Amino acid sequence: MLSAAAGLDAGGVAVLNSALPSLGAEFGASARDLSWAVGGYALAFAGLLLCGGAMADRLRRRRVLVAGLLAVAAGSVLAGLAPAFGAVVAGRVLQGAGAAVTMPAATALLTSVYPEGRGRARALGVFASAQAGCYGAGLVLGGAVTGALGWRWVFAVLALAAVGTAAAAVRSLPVGDTAGSGRGPEPVGAVALVGALVLAVLAADLATRPGGLPTALAVMAAAAACGRLWWLRGRSPATADAAPESTAPAPTASPVRGGGHRAPLLDPGLLRLPGVRIAAVVAVAFYFCVTGTLFLLPLRLQEVRGLSAGASGWAVLPVSLAVSAAALVSGRLLRRYGARILLSVGLLLTAGGVLVWCLPGDRGVSWPAVLTGLVVSGCGQGVAFPALVATGLDGVAPGDHGTASAVTVTALQLGSATGPAVLAAIGQAVSGPGPGAALGAGSGPGSAAALSVEGYRLAYAAAAGVLLVVGLPAVARLGRHPGARGTRGKERGAGTGAAAGTGASPA
DSSP readout, 208-249? Predict the structure, then answer.
């Protein structure tokens, strides 16, 4: 149930890729216009994730989950019935907002329904496996539905899946108690933080467009200013009067602080918890590598080997199968070996699989190397992801699991937003102008279509390097068995630990 809710995000992103050409042809939309169908979703998703986490921590989590799923369904209906391309973009923005509410609520419910221990570790494995499986299914289903019925039916399928999952959640999940008073967060800091995240994602998109670097730098400066304002508001006496400064990590955020003041949307003290902070750093590096390389690989197969878009989608399907299988195993191993070992192994496998694609081959592509890299990197992702989720929740009071999980997912989205653009730019630096330059000029990250074989290899090497140079040292700072020490703030969590209520685990 919870895995299906989270899988709608991964499947919804993948299924749209095959529908974009038909959608653009019907509305006469350029490649740059089409990028907003993807970018609008990413902006809403990344910008509102922490709001979704706060809702999951302060309201009844099942109701939050159902509301998010219904928003996804409404956005799908709006996009599927769109009379103009602008309505498609609006629908995608609504879908992203719904997913931003759904993901933290699903993660928080999972940790409430499954107590800490072997059951939760296995549940996290199934959770990650289902998302990977939905992504792979989306790649195949999107092409099949678009070819047989048209692109509008892609959104119809998403709407039906969201409504069905919401109905099943109402029947199977506990209603839960409120984790806090339900009072909203401090408004100025909340707006500043959401603005910082949205502007950061927008800056990454603008940086990929021709002549967009100066504007991107200005937008990034505005994002930094918003982030600074959030930090100051979060540490001001009006929102941070609960505890004096100390050298120990601060307790996690509670919905309303002492004195009746409203708490910030994201308490800066939460980022002082080692697990939350390290998970965020690893998540950015992890999805920078994964999303960037899986963006480049189909383009390489199309440009160098001449595969069609549909055939290149089938060619990368093994990575989703490998992720699903490895995540199931990882869930069983997490409790025994701890997150640090599994994250280290997962990052090494992911980087190693990407480096395999740097090997020479016929016409620049070695099919054995492509398949080997997909399987090895997919296994690495499946091993790493459940451990990454567990790390982000380590030491966090149960009532704050929604916000903490939103921090990790937001970091994943920032890595996903920057990976394709940066890696394409690195590859382009050694490729120079090529026959695909015209396409690249209109497609943002799609400028990778002009890359040479050497450009692709350099981009792959850079992606693996970021994972090894940034991700692995961060993992090394983890304790031996994150999560084994218990949950920080349990004495405070007596009233919040039952945020999702009690009841039988969903089938």
Answer: TSTT-HHHHHHHHHHHHHHHHHHHHHHHSTTT--SS---SSP
